[in-house]
Amino acid sequence: MNHPQGSANGVVYNHRVTTRGPARQMSIGFGGPPPRDVIVMLVIVAVTFSLGFFTSLLELLRLTPQAWQNLFLWQAFTYPWIGSGGATFWILLELLILYWFASDVFRLLGRRRFWELFVVASVGAAALAIVADVATSAAGALIPSFVLMQGQRMLILIAIAAFATLRSDATILLFFVLPIKARWFIWLEIALGFIGFLGSKDFPGFVGICASVGIATILLRPGGLRASTKEARLRMERWWIQRKLGRMRKKSRLKIVKDDEPRQGPWVN
Question: Structure pTM?
C-alpha cells in the first residue's frame, strides 16, 4: 500500500508498507489531527524558550556541571524541556521538525511508550554526558559542557532516531532532491553531532548525542535491550573466532575450507 507523501521545509518522505487484510490509510508527517501530547511538548518548549529572555531561574533547569558538582540531579530530567537557543528563525524550524517526527513516532508507539522513550533516552544521555564531563574535568580540560544537547535539540535527536528505527525503509528526500533511507538518519545525526563537537569542543555534549541516539535505537529495536546485547555479544564472539582461526592458519599452514566453497581434493573439515 502506498501512503501519501509529507513535506516540510524542503524535506519530503514517503513510505511503502504491506498490510494484511483490508487496506487502511495511515497518517504520516502532517497527516491527520495533531497528537495532543506532541502539542503539549511543543508548548512547554516554546514557553520556556520565551521565559528564558526574562528570567535566569530557568538556568537551574538546564543541564550544567552543577548536576554533579552540587548534586543538582533534577537537571538530568528537566533539561530537554527547557527551550534553548537565540531569538532567530531556527527555533521555529526546530519546533517544526520536532512536531513532524514526534507526531509520527507518537502514532506508532502510543502515549505510554512515547513518553517512556523520551524520558529514558534523555535521562540516559544526561547520565553518560555527566560521566564524560567528570572525566574531562578530572583530566584538566577546559571545554564547554552540554551545549550541543540542550532543550529541543535533544528531543529532536530522540524523535528522529525513533523514526529512523521504526520506519527504517521510509525514503526521505532532502530539499526534494536527495533520497535517503530513514535508517541512515541515525548515522547522520552522529555525523552532525561530531561536526558540532569540532566547532564547540563540547565533548560531554557529543557523548550525550551519541547516547540519546543509541538508547532510542536500542529501546525500539525488536527484542529491545536484550536482543541488542545478544547481537553485540554474538558479533564479538564471531570476530574473536575469526581472529583465532586466522592465527591458527598462519601458524599451522592449514587451509580452512568454507561450507559454500567447491571442494577440490580430500579436504577434511
Answer: 0.75
